[in-house]
Write a structure and sequence with these properties.
By secondary structure, the protein is an alpha+beta fold. The protein has two domains: 108 residues, Phosphorylase Kinase, domain 1, CATH 3.30.200.20; 288 residues, Transferase(Phosphotransferase), domain 1 (Orthogonal Bundle), CATH 1.10.510.10. The chain is built from twelve helices and 15 strands. It has a six-stranded antiparallel barrel with strand order 1-2-3-4-6-5. A three-stranded antiparallel β-sheet has the order 7-9-10. Strands 8-11 form a two-stranded antiparallel sheet. The longest helix is centred in the C-terminal third of the chain and has 35 residues. The radius of gyration is 25 Å and the shape is elongated.
Length: 413
Protein backbone atom coordinates (compact mmCIF):
# COMPACT_ATOMS: atom_id res chain seq x y z
CA UNK A 1 0.00 0.00 0.00
CA UNK A 2 1.62 3.21 -1.21
CA UNK A 3 -0.42 6.01 0.34
CA UNK A 4 0.16 7.14 3.90
CA UNK A 5 -2.61 9.12 5.59
CA UNK A 6 -1.66 11.04 8.74
CA UNK A 7 -4.38 12.17 11.10
CA UNK A 8 -5.00 13.66 14.53
CA UNK A 9 -7.22 11.27 16.55
CA UNK A 10 -10.47 12.62 17.97
CA UNK A 11 -9.54 11.70 21.55
CA UNK A 12 -6.43 11.45 23.71
CA UNK A 13 -4.23 8.44 23.10
CA UNK A 14 -1.23 8.97 25.41
CA UNK A 15 -0.67 8.57 29.15
CA UNK A 16 -0.15 12.31 29.66
CA UNK A 17 -3.53 13.14 28.08
CA UNK A 18 -2.10 14.54 24.88
CA UNK A 19 -3.10 13.59 21.37
CA UNK A 20 -0.36 11.97 19.32
CA UNK A 21 -0.49 11.83 15.54
CA UNK A 22 -1.46 8.50 13.97
CA UNK A 23 -1.12 7.14 10.47
CA UNK A 24 -2.65 4.46 8.28
CA UNK A 25 -1.52 3.09 4.93
CA UNK A 26 -4.08 2.92 2.12
CA UNK A 27 -4.41 1.79 -1.45
CA UNK A 28 -4.01 4.44 -4.15
CA UNK A 29 -7.44 3.81 -5.65
CA UNK A 30 -10.68 3.91 -3.64
CA UNK A 31 -12.99 0.91 -3.42
CA UNK A 32 -16.07 3.05 -3.99
CA UNK A 33 -16.89 5.67 -6.57
CA UNK A 34 -16.17 9.03 -4.98
CA UNK A 35 -19.54 10.49 -4.10
CA UNK A 36 -21.39 12.76 -1.77
CA UNK A 37 -20.63 10.67 1.31
CA UNK A 38 -16.87 10.47 0.97
CA UNK A 39 -14.24 8.15 -0.44
CA UNK A 40 -13.36 4.73 0.99
CA UNK A 41 -9.98 2.99 0.69
CA UNK A 42 -8.61 -0.32 1.89
CA UNK A 43 -6.10 0.46 4.62
CA UNK A 44 -3.54 -1.27 6.81
CA UNK A 45 -2.49 -0.44 10.37
CA UNK A 46 1.09 -1.51 11.13
CA UNK A 47 0.65 -1.62 14.92
CA UNK A 48 -2.28 -4.03 14.91
CA UNK A 49 -1.38 -5.75 11.60
CA UNK A 50 -4.99 -5.38 10.48
CA UNK A 51 -6.63 -4.47 7.22
CA UNK A 52 -9.26 -1.79 7.67
CA UNK A 53 -11.53 0.50 5.69
CA UNK A 54 -10.45 4.15 5.64
CA UNK A 55 -13.11 6.70 4.84
CA UNK A 56 -12.16 10.27 3.91
CA UNK A 57 -14.94 12.84 4.35
CA UNK A 58 -14.63 16.32 2.86
CA UNK A 59 -17.51 17.94 4.76
CA UNK A 60 -16.54 18.56 8.38
CA UNK A 61 -20.13 18.87 9.59
CA UNK A 62 -20.86 15.43 8.11
CA UNK A 63 -17.74 14.04 9.78
CA UNK A 64 -18.70 15.51 13.15
CA UNK A 65 -22.26 14.20 12.88
CA UNK A 66 -21.10 10.70 11.92
CA UNK A 67 -18.58 10.75 14.78
CA UNK A 68 -21.30 11.78 17.23
CA UNK A 69 -23.52 8.90 16.11
CA UNK A 70 -20.64 6.39 16.20
CA UNK A 71 -19.64 7.43 19.72
CA UNK A 72 -23.25 7.23 20.90
CA UNK A 73 -23.59 3.72 19.49
CA UNK A 74 -20.46 2.58 21.33
CA UNK A 75 -21.60 4.33 24.50
CA UNK A 76 -25.18 3.04 24.56
CA UNK A 77 -24.87 -0.42 23.02
CA UNK A 78 -22.64 -3.13 24.50
CA UNK A 79 -20.49 -4.87 21.89
CA UNK A 80 -22.75 -7.94 21.96
CA UNK A 81 -25.75 -5.75 21.02
CA UNK A 82 -24.12 -4.17 17.97
CA UNK A 83 -22.76 -7.17 16.12
CA UNK A 84 -24.42 -6.00 12.88
CA UNK A 85 -23.03 -2.47 12.90
CA UNK A 86 -19.59 -1.84 11.43
CA UNK A 87 -17.16 -1.08 14.24
CA UNK A 88 -15.44 2.31 14.34
CA UNK A 89 -11.78 1.68 15.20
CA UNK A 90 -10.63 5.29 15.16
CA UNK A 91 -11.41 8.72 13.73
CA UNK A 92 -9.78 12.11 13.44
CA UNK A 93 -8.83 15.08 11.30
CA UNK A 94 -6.47 14.52 8.40
CA UNK A 95 -3.01 16.10 8.52
CA UNK A 96 -0.67 17.04 5.70
CA UNK A 97 -3.24 18.54 3.34
CA UNK A 98 -3.51 22.14 2.18
CA UNK A 99 -4.68 24.63 4.81
CA UNK A 100 -7.77 25.37 2.74
CA UNK A 101 -8.82 21.71 2.89
CA UNK A 102 -10.23 20.06 6.00
CA UNK A 103 -11.00 16.37 5.90
CA UNK A 104 -12.32 13.93 8.46
CA UNK A 105 -11.00 10.37 8.65
CA UNK A 106 -12.75 7.23 9.84
CA UNK A 107 -10.90 3.96 10.35
CA UNK A 108 -13.48 1.18 10.23
CA UNK A 109 -13.85 -2.57 10.29
CA UNK A 110 -13.37 -3.86 6.73
CA UNK A 111 -16.19 -5.68 4.97
CA UNK A 112 -15.62 -8.22 2.21
CA UNK A 113 -18.05 -6.68 -0.29
CA UNK A 114 -21.14 -4.52 -0.28
CA UNK A 115 -24.66 -5.87 -0.38
CA UNK A 116 -25.10 -4.03 -3.70
CA UNK A 117 -22.07 -5.81 -5.17
CA UNK A 118 -23.46 -9.12 -4.00
CA UNK A 119 -26.99 -8.75 -5.40
CA UNK A 120 -25.80 -7.29 -8.72
CA UNK A 121 -22.90 -9.71 -9.04
CA UNK A 122 -24.82 -12.91 -8.27
CA UNK A 123 -27.84 -14.10 -10.21
CA UNK A 124 -30.11 -14.25 -7.16
CA UNK A 125 -33.65 -15.54 -7.50
CA UNK A 126 -36.12 -16.64 -4.82
CA UNK A 127 -38.35 -19.69 -4.87
CA UNK A 128 -40.84 -18.66 -2.20
CA UNK A 129 -41.71 -16.31 0.65
CA UNK A 130 -39.29 -18.03 3.02
CA UNK A 131 -36.26 -17.40 0.80
CA UNK A 132 -37.16 -13.76 0.21
CA UNK A 133 -37.98 -13.40 3.90
CA UNK A 134 -34.48 -14.53 4.86
CA UNK A 135 -33.03 -11.76 2.73
CA UNK A 136 -35.38 -9.21 4.35
CA UNK A 137 -34.29 -10.48 7.75
CA UNK A 138 -30.62 -9.86 6.91
CA UNK A 139 -31.53 -6.22 6.22
CA UNK A 140 -33.81 -5.73 9.22
CA UNK A 141 -31.44 -7.08 11.90
CA UNK A 142 -28.78 -4.33 11.47
CA UNK A 143 -31.52 -1.69 11.33
CA UNK A 144 -33.07 -2.99 14.56
CA UNK A 145 -29.69 -2.57 16.28
CA UNK A 146 -29.05 0.84 14.75
CA UNK A 147 -32.51 2.17 15.58
CA UNK A 148 -31.83 1.75 19.29
CA UNK A 149 -29.69 4.86 18.96
CA UNK A 150 -30.20 6.69 15.68
CA UNK A 151 -31.94 7.04 12.33
CA UNK A 152 -29.70 6.21 9.39
CA UNK A 153 -31.42 8.32 6.68
CA UNK A 154 -29.43 6.78 3.81
CA UNK A 155 -30.49 3.13 3.78
CA UNK A 156 -29.53 1.52 0.46
CA UNK A 157 -27.74 -1.66 -0.68
CA UNK A 158 -24.39 0.15 -0.94
CA UNK A 159 -24.52 0.91 2.79
CA UNK A 160 -24.65 -2.72 3.88
CA UNK A 161 -21.53 -4.86 3.75
CA UNK A 162 -20.85 -8.53 4.28
CA UNK A 163 -18.24 -9.59 6.80
CA UNK A 164 -17.05 -12.96 7.99
CA UNK A 165 -17.31 -14.13 11.56
CA UNK A 166 -16.33 -17.44 13.05
CA UNK A 167 -19.14 -19.26 14.84
CA UNK A 168 -18.34 -22.17 17.07
CA UNK A 169 -20.84 -25.03 16.75
CA UNK A 170 -21.02 -28.61 17.90
CA UNK A 171 -22.24 -31.38 15.66
CA UNK A 172 -23.84 -34.64 16.73
CA UNK A 173 -20.44 -36.19 17.41
CA UNK A 174 -19.66 -33.35 19.82
CA UNK A 175 -16.71 -32.29 17.68
CA UNK A 176 -16.08 -28.57 17.44
CA UNK A 177 -15.98 -27.00 14.01
CA UNK A 178 -15.57 -23.42 12.89
CA UNK A 179 -18.15 -22.31 10.36
CA UNK A 180 -17.59 -19.10 8.45
CA UNK A 181 -20.89 -17.29 7.98
CA UNK A 182 -21.76 -14.16 6.02
CA UNK A 183 -23.00 -11.41 8.30
CA UNK A 184 -24.62 -8.25 7.01
CA UNK A 185 -23.51 -5.07 8.72
CA UNK A 186 -24.69 -1.52 8.26
CA UNK A 187 -22.14 1.21 7.54
CA UNK A 188 -21.90 4.88 6.69
CA UNK A 189 -23.41 7.22 9.26
CA UNK A 190 -23.16 10.42 7.20
CA UNK A 191 -26.46 12.20 7.60
CA UNK A 192 -27.59 9.92 10.42
CA UNK A 193 -29.37 11.60 13.31
CA UNK A 194 -29.67 10.57 16.94
CA UNK A 195 -33.20 9.45 17.76
CA UNK A 196 -35.11 12.19 19.59
CA UNK A 197 -38.44 13.45 18.35
CA UNK A 198 -37.80 12.33 14.78
CA UNK A 199 -38.97 9.04 13.31
CA UNK A 200 -37.07 5.99 12.14
CA UNK A 201 -39.86 5.30 9.62
CA UNK A 202 -37.87 6.96 6.82
CA UNK A 203 -35.41 4.08 7.11
CA UNK A 204 -38.28 1.59 7.09
CA UNK A 205 -39.55 3.06 3.81
CA UNK A 206 -36.04 2.58 2.38
CA UNK A 207 -36.04 -1.09 3.39
CA UNK A 208 -39.25 -1.47 1.39
CA UNK A 209 -37.54 0.11 -1.63
CA UNK A 210 -34.59 -2.29 -1.27
CA UNK A 211 -37.03 -5.21 -1.29
CA UNK A 212 -38.54 -3.90 -4.55
CA UNK A 213 -35.03 -3.69 -6.02
CA UNK A 214 -34.37 -7.31 -5.04
CA UNK A 215 -37.62 -8.33 -6.73
CA UNK A 216 -36.76 -6.44 -9.92
CA UNK A 217 -33.45 -8.31 -10.00
CA UNK A 218 -35.33 -11.55 -9.30
CA UNK A 219 -37.54 -10.87 -12.30
CA UNK A 220 -34.54 -10.04 -14.49
CA UNK A 221 -32.66 -13.23 -13.61
CA UNK A 222 -35.81 -15.36 -13.82
CA UNK A 223 -36.53 -14.14 -17.36
CA UNK A 224 -32.95 -13.97 -18.66
CA UNK A 225 -29.97 -16.24 -18.87
CA UNK A 226 -28.36 -16.32 -15.42
CA UNK A 227 -24.98 -15.47 -17.01
CA UNK A 228 -26.35 -12.20 -18.35
CA UNK A 229 -25.68 -9.38 -15.91
CA UNK A 230 -28.30 -6.77 -15.17
CA UNK A 231 -27.67 -3.11 -15.87
CA UNK A 232 -27.99 -1.20 -12.61
CA UNK A 233 -29.10 1.95 -14.44
CA UNK A 234 -32.02 0.08 -16.04
CA UNK A 235 -33.04 -1.50 -12.72
CA UNK A 236 -32.85 1.94 -11.07
CA UNK A 237 -35.11 3.42 -13.77
CA UNK A 238 -37.67 0.65 -13.31
CA UNK A 239 -37.45 0.99 -9.54
CA UNK A 240 -38.15 4.73 -9.72
CA UNK A 241 -41.36 4.12 -11.67
CA UNK A 242 -42.56 1.41 -9.29
CA UNK A 243 -41.88 3.58 -6.23
CA UNK A 244 -43.95 6.40 -7.80
CA UNK A 245 -47.04 4.22 -7.38
CA UNK A 246 -46.40 3.80 -3.65
CA UNK A 247 -45.35 7.41 -3.10
CA UNK A 248 -48.26 8.85 -5.10
CA UNK A 249 -46.15 11.18 -7.23
CA UNK A 250 -42.94 11.25 -9.23
CA UNK A 251 -39.86 13.26 -8.29
CA UNK A 252 -37.53 15.50 -10.24
CA UNK A 253 -34.10 16.68 -9.20
CA UNK A 254 -33.67 20.36 -8.45
CA UNK A 255 -31.05 21.86 -10.76
CA UNK A 256 -27.65 22.41 -9.07
CA UNK A 257 -28.86 20.71 -5.90
CA UNK A 258 -28.81 17.34 -4.18
CA UNK A 259 -32.49 17.75 -3.39
CA UNK A 260 -35.61 16.54 -5.19
CA UNK A 261 -39.06 18.05 -5.48
CA UNK A 262 -42.51 16.71 -6.26
CA UNK A 263 -43.27 16.39 -9.93
CA UNK A 264 -46.41 14.76 -11.34
CA UNK A 265 -49.01 13.30 -8.93
CA UNK A 266 -50.53 9.91 -9.75
CA UNK A 267 -54.24 10.59 -10.32
CA UNK A 268 -55.52 7.19 -9.20
CA UNK A 269 -59.22 7.99 -9.28
CA UNK A 270 -59.68 10.94 -11.66
CA UNK A 271 -58.61 9.33 -14.95
CA UNK A 272 -57.10 6.15 -16.37
CA UNK A 273 -54.01 7.67 -17.99
CA UNK A 274 -51.85 6.47 -15.09
CA UNK A 275 -52.79 2.84 -15.87
CA UNK A 276 -51.05 3.16 -19.23
CA UNK A 277 -48.11 5.20 -17.94
CA UNK A 278 -47.41 2.69 -15.15
CA UNK A 279 -48.69 -0.43 -16.91
CA UNK A 280 -45.38 -2.32 -16.66
CA UNK A 281 -44.94 -1.34 -13.01
CA UNK A 282 -48.48 -2.42 -12.10
CA UNK A 283 -47.88 -5.76 -13.81
CA UNK A 284 -44.65 -6.17 -11.83
CA UNK A 285 -46.45 -5.43 -8.54
CA UNK A 286 -49.24 -7.90 -9.28
CA UNK A 287 -46.67 -10.53 -10.25
CA UNK A 288 -44.81 -10.36 -6.95
CA UNK A 289 -48.15 -10.43 -5.06
CA UNK A 290 -48.78 -13.66 -6.95
CA UNK A 291 -45.32 -15.18 -6.32
CA UNK A 292 -44.65 -13.91 -2.80
CA UNK A 293 -48.02 -13.23 -1.10
CA UNK A 294 -46.66 -12.88 2.43
CA UNK A 295 -43.68 -10.72 1.49
CA UNK A 296 -45.98 -8.56 -0.67
CA UNK A 297 -47.94 -7.72 2.48
CA UNK A 298 -44.69 -6.78 4.23
CA UNK A 299 -43.44 -4.59 1.37
CA UNK A 300 -46.78 -2.79 1.04
CA UNK A 301 -46.74 -2.07 4.77
CA UNK A 302 -43.17 -0.71 4.68
CA UNK A 303 -44.15 1.60 1.80
CA UNK A 304 -47.37 2.84 3.36
CA UNK A 305 -47.90 6.60 2.84
CA UNK A 306 -48.95 6.73 6.50
CA UNK A 307 -45.71 6.24 8.43
CA UNK A 308 -47.69 5.30 11.55
CA UNK A 309 -48.74 2.07 9.82
CA UNK A 310 -45.18 1.02 8.97
CA UNK A 311 -43.64 -1.66 11.14
CA UNK A 312 -40.48 -1.06 13.09
CA UNK A 313 -37.39 -3.10 12.25
CA UNK A 314 -38.29 -5.40 15.15
CA UNK A 315 -41.82 -5.64 13.75
CA UNK A 316 -40.37 -6.79 10.42
CA UNK A 317 -38.44 -9.56 12.17
CA UNK A 318 -41.53 -10.67 14.11
CA UNK A 319 -43.66 -10.71 10.94
CA UNK A 320 -41.11 -12.79 9.03
CA UNK A 321 -41.04 -15.24 11.94
CA UNK A 322 -44.84 -15.51 11.81
CA UNK A 323 -45.34 -14.01 15.25
CA UNK A 324 -47.40 -10.94 14.29
CA UNK A 325 -49.70 -9.50 11.63
CA UNK A 326 -50.04 -5.86 10.44
CA UNK A 327 -53.11 -4.08 11.83
CA UNK A 328 -54.45 -3.21 8.36
CA UNK A 329 -54.45 -6.92 7.45
CA UNK A 330 -55.88 -8.05 10.79
CA UNK A 331 -58.75 -5.58 10.44
CA UNK A 332 -59.52 -6.42 6.79
CA UNK A 333 -62.50 -8.69 6.14
CA UNK A 334 -61.00 -9.97 2.90
CA UNK A 335 -58.26 -9.31 0.40
CA UNK A 336 -60.22 -6.56 -1.37
CA UNK A 337 -59.63 -4.40 1.72
CA UNK A 338 -55.84 -4.82 1.49
CA UNK A 339 -53.86 -1.83 0.19
CA UNK A 340 -52.13 -2.54 -3.11
CA UNK A 341 -50.12 0.71 -3.26
CA UNK A 342 -50.42 4.15 -1.70
CA UNK A 343 -53.99 4.44 -0.33
CA UNK A 344 -55.56 2.35 -3.11
CA UNK A 345 -57.24 -0.85 -1.87
CA UNK A 346 -57.41 -3.98 -4.01
CA UNK A 347 -61.18 -3.67 -4.27
CA UNK A 348 -60.82 -0.08 -5.49
CA UNK A 349 -58.19 -1.13 -8.00
CA UNK A 350 -60.51 -3.80 -9.42
CA UNK A 351 -63.26 -1.17 -9.69
CA UNK A 352 -60.88 1.17 -11.56
CA UNK A 353 -60.16 -1.63 -14.03
CA UNK A 354 -63.90 -2.21 -14.48
CA UNK A 355 -64.50 1.49 -15.16
CA UNK A 356 -61.67 1.42 -17.68
CA UNK A 357 -63.37 -1.51 -19.40
CA UNK A 358 -66.59 0.51 -19.68
CA UNK A 359 -64.73 3.47 -21.16
CA UNK A 360 -63.01 1.28 -23.74
CA UNK A 361 -66.34 -0.34 -24.68
CA UNK A 362 -67.93 2.97 -25.61
CA UNK A 363 -68.62 3.95 -29.22
CA UNK A 364 -66.03 2.70 -31.68
CA UNK A 365 -63.93 5.32 -33.42
CA UNK A 366 -63.90 5.79 -37.18
CA UNK A 367 -60.17 6.41 -37.07
CA UNK A 368 -58.38 3.09 -37.59
CA UNK A 369 -55.31 4.15 -35.58
CA UNK A 370 -57.44 5.18 -32.60
CA UNK A 371 -59.31 1.88 -32.74
CA UNK A 372 -56.02 -0.04 -32.81
CA UNK A 373 -54.82 1.83 -29.73
CA UNK A 374 -58.09 1.06 -27.97
CA UNK A 375 -57.69 -2.62 -28.79
CA UNK A 376 -54.16 -2.61 -27.36
CA UNK A 377 -55.52 -0.94 -24.22
CA UNK A 378 -58.30 -3.53 -23.95
CA UNK A 379 -55.70 -6.29 -24.01
CA UNK A 380 -53.66 -4.54 -21.33
CA UNK A 381 -56.74 -4.10 -19.13
CA UNK A 382 -57.68 -7.76 -19.56
CA UNK A 383 -54.18 -8.86 -18.60
CA UNK A 384 -54.15 -6.71 -15.45
CA UNK A 385 -57.65 -7.86 -14.50
CA UNK A 386 -56.72 -11.51 -14.92
CA UNK A 387 -53.61 -11.09 -12.77
CA UNK A 388 -55.52 -9.14 -10.10
CA UNK A 389 -58.22 -11.82 -9.89
CA UNK A 390 -55.59 -14.57 -9.46
CA UNK A 391 -53.87 -12.54 -6.73
CA UNK A 392 -57.18 -11.90 -4.94
CA UNK A 393 -58.07 -15.58 -4.90
CA UNK A 394 -54.66 -16.66 -3.59
CA UNK A 395 -54.35 -13.86 -1.09
CA UNK A 396 -57.71 -14.64 0.52
CA UNK A 397 -56.24 -18.01 1.55
CA UNK A 398 -53.16 -16.30 3.00
CA UNK A 399 -55.41 -13.83 4.83
CA UNK A 400 -57.26 -16.66 6.59
CA UNK A 401 -53.96 -17.92 7.97
CA UNK A 402 -52.57 -14.53 8.95
CA UNK A 403 -55.61 -13.39 10.94
CA UNK A 404 -55.22 -16.41 13.22
CA UNK A 405 -52.26 -14.60 14.74
CA UNK A 406 -53.35 -12.52 17.72
CA UNK A 407 -50.36 -10.20 17.91
CA UNK A 408 -50.19 -6.97 15.92
CA UNK A 409 -46.80 -6.07 14.47
CA UNK A 410 -44.91 -3.37 16.34
CA UNK A 411 -45.18 0.07 14.76
CA UNK A 412 -43.70 2.14 17.57
CA UNK A 413 -46.97 4.05 17.98
Amino acid sequence: MKNLIRYKPYKTNTNDGKIAERQVKTTELPINSQGENGTVYVGYIEVTKKCVAVKVINELDEYENALKVSEKIQEMLPRKNRTHIIEMIDAGLRLGVRDSIQQGIFVLELGTLSFAEMVYGASLTYQNDDELGRMARHIAIPMAEFHQVAMHLDVKPENFVLTKREIERRNFLLLKENISEDVFKIVDFNGAQLVKSVSTKTDIWSIGVIMLELLLLHRFYSENNSFQKSEKSEITKQLSEVVDLYRGFSLKKIINSKEFEKNSPVEYFSNKIWLLKYYESIGFILQFWKEFPKMAILITNLLSPNRNFRMTANGILEFIAGRCVPAEIKNAQNMQQFPIFNRVLFGEFLQILKEWQNELAQNSADDEQIEKRKEVNRQKREKLTKMANIVTKRQNKVHKELVKCRNLCETGI
